[in-house]
Design brief:
The chain is 72% helix and 0% strand. With 181 residues, the chain is an all-alpha fold.
Length: 181
């Protein structure tokens, strides 16, 4: 992953968030693609925290374009990024279940801190409203993370060539490999 790829992915996510995601909304709630991409990059890649930090400027742009207060989403993403980098380093990054657990917890943390900051700034939303919103937002963001993971796995499989059998690593060769030599 490079900074150019990460910026391109967040740019595409930003454009899709404000153009096509309204078509997939359920009761007015659409998946947050910037949040989903940030959680996926920060968790899946070993050095993904530095690339996932590019989500913060795009979150500021998203707040300016459609939020009530500018910078609230970016502050919540920063808190979430620190939490994922601190707690996610000891988890197994290869299994789907840990990715889903990180995505579920990350979505809940993100929306809780967004609600907390906005309530401090004077937004009259209640905790019950947040829980009703999370009831729809959690599955939507999990579906988005699963789709991002599926696209990543397909692209990653095509770029990696198989090296052979596990027997080759132990010093033994198959008949087919002996013929090539």
């Amino acid at each position: 992953m490079s900074y150019k790829k990460a910026a391109l992915l967040f740019g595409i996510g930003f454009l899709l968030q404000f153009s096509l995601m309204n078509l997939f909304s359920v009761l007015g709630v659409a998946p947050n693609l910037i949040l989903s991409l940030m959680m996926f990059m920060a968790y899946k890649y070993n050095d993904g925290v530095k690339y996932a930090a590019l989500a913060i400027p795009f979150a500021i742009l998203a707040d300016v374009a459609g939020g009530q207060y500018a910078g609230v989403g970016a502050m919540s993403l920063l808190v979430l990024l620190v939490a994922i980098s601190f707690f996610g380093r000891n988890l197994n990054r290869d299994t789907l279940w840990t990715l889903l657990a990180v995505s579920t917890g990350g979505t809940a943390i993100y929306y809780f801190f967004t609600w907390l900051i906005m309530s401090v700034l004077g937004n009259p939303a209640t905790m019950l409203g947040l829980l009703r919103f999370l009831f729809i937002a959690l599955p939507m963001n999990l579906i988005a993370v699963l789709l991002i993971n599926q696209v990543y796995r397909r692209g990653h499989r095509r770029s990696v060539r198989p090296t052979g059998y596990a027997i080759v690593d132990m010093g033994m060769r198959t008949k087919k490999q002996n013929k090539k030599m």
